[in-house]
Amino acid sequence: MSPQFQIAAVILAAGESSRLGQPKQLIQFRGKTLVRRMVDAASEADCRPVLVVLGNSKRTSHLHSQGSPKGEASEHEIDLIEAISCELKKTGATIVANPNWKRGIGTSIRAGVQHLIEIAPGVEATVLLACDQPFVDRAVIEGLITLYHETRKPIVAASYAGTLGVPALFDRSRLRDLLGLDDSAGAKSIILSNRDQVAEFPFPEGEIDIDTAEDRERFCVTNDSQVENQSLAD
To answer: Could you read off the pLDDT of 107-118 as tens digits, one per residue?
Structure first.
């Protein structure tokens, strides 16, 4: 992608994962952690720069150790920024720490967009991504960017489950709207209040996110088992 058409990516990865029992950012899906998959997808779609917004706190992770009775788990505390920084060390992604992440998703969007404006003031647009949507890949991000260039709409949003939401692309003219979000408000509030300025990108799998242990078992464990079995068959 040429510099005059620079599209950035801001990846939201500061969630607490309270219903999951472990940091969702580091859950494996198809051989990669969710956060690494999203960074790779954005990079492969030629997004530059790629920013990852994290909460700067330690998290308790519940690990099932081999040989333990089913349902038993050990707990340990990890420094999430350190762990994810190590995971993304060779990707070129920029880590943005959000000390106010517990106040709501709006704080993470503001932190990411503000840092983006500071380091890449000439960016044409940015793609807003949530690391817990496992089926977002390069093709989806490229689809958002292509639709943006074709329609010249200032917002391109994924459509799924009868609504619109992230992943979504925001033209530089709408970045100030993201900076004005309330602490608990997400990008959907901007998308739905500006429907006439939104191009819709069909993405049925967008309704799937990894929020609970059940989600992890249904989508991540099952998919990874299928990948492993296929590798053994090959």
So the answer is: 999 999 999 999
